[in-house]
Amino acid sequence: MLNNTVWSILCLLSLSAAIVGHANDQSVVTVISKEGQDAVLPCSLSTRKNIVQTVFDWKKDDQKEVFLYDAGIHYNNGRTGQDQQFIGRVSHFPGQLEFGNASIIIQNTTVIDSGTYSCVFPRIQPQAQIFKIQLLIGGTFKDRSNIIPGAAQEPCVTILTATEHKVFLKCEVRGAFPQPKVQWQDSDGKVLPAEEPQVSERDKRYSVTLITTVTRTTTNRFYCVVTQDVIKHRTAADIYVPFCEPKCNHSAGTFMGGWFSGALSVGGPLAVFLVIKYIKKRQRERSDQQEKDPENGAAVSLNLEDV
Ligand SMILES: *[C@@H]1O[C@H](CO)[C@@H](O)[C@H](O)[C@H]1NC(C)=O
Ligand SMILES: *[C@@H]1O[C@H](CO)[C@@H](O)[C@H](O)[C@H]1NC(C)=O
């Protein structure tokens, strides 16, 4: 008994030591900002040495070129090689260089700007200096499939098979990066138990298939919801399962699956999200139709950008 207690305490002590040690290890400055706002990433030499005639280089996640300054030449005055993501959005503070301040400002941030930035002075004597800054951009979940490469497209949902009492629903997502989380939900937003997702990866793009079994419940509509947390992307597709009424004939055509575009009645934020998606889909369909048939009514113009 006593031994157990002692061990527990020792365990707890070493665990907390490990956590503290880890946190102290890296002197990473964290900057938190919101999507659409500008973010200043700080980086200054403690010596306040003049850096006008030297080099400093900002990189994101050790790979993307954010901002390179070399004795007055940088990406905003002719130098090439800046990553596409940052072109025209990053500047330094020229008046601060003489005080050893290599901070930069990133304009109009989006969630994909989140990550670890390094600010390197490769030619500072006696040794190169590296500063790490973690940037976290908060954003709300929305459909970003048209803005961010790798954001999952709307999933494909089908009825796989059906027995008298059960229906197997399949949801497929293809070519997404980062790896998406896929869930089946009922119309109350409750996550349904599902089989283990089948995940495959090719060229850093993930495809996920998720199968669930549904039985007759109070709802007939089911949603496959695809989420990519890091890029705050969410998309979904729904499927209508016409479960048999007890009086109906079981012999033929019992289950018909497919895309239904009826009015939705679901609760919570997902409902709003799906209704918006639905309206957008209808808008697309209508504008497609108008292209074919120009006399067919005026254009619908709802502003859905803020969702
Ligand atoms: C460096 O310059 C930025 C922009 O003017 C400023 O916000 C920051 O406080 C400066 N850092 C230091 C250490 O002076
Ligand atoms: C900010 O970025 C978004 C998309 O990333 C773009 O639609 C918008 O026009 C930008 N705003 C400004 C002020 O540049």
Automatic annotation (TrEMBL):
It is found in: Membrane. Residues 285-295 have a biased composition (Basic and acidic residues). Residues 285-307 are annotated as: Disordered. SUPFAM superfamilies: Immunoglobulin. InterPro entries: BTN3A2-like_Ig-C, Ig-like_dom, Ig-like_dom_sf, Ig-like_fold, Ig_sub, Ig_V-set, IgSF_BTN/MOG. Residues 1-23 form the signal peptide. GO terms for cellular component: external side of plasma membrane. One of its GO terms (molecular function) is signaling receptor binding. The chain crosses the membrane at residues 256-276. PROSITE patterns: IG_LIKE (PS50835). This is Butyrophilin-like protein 10. It comes from Channa argus.
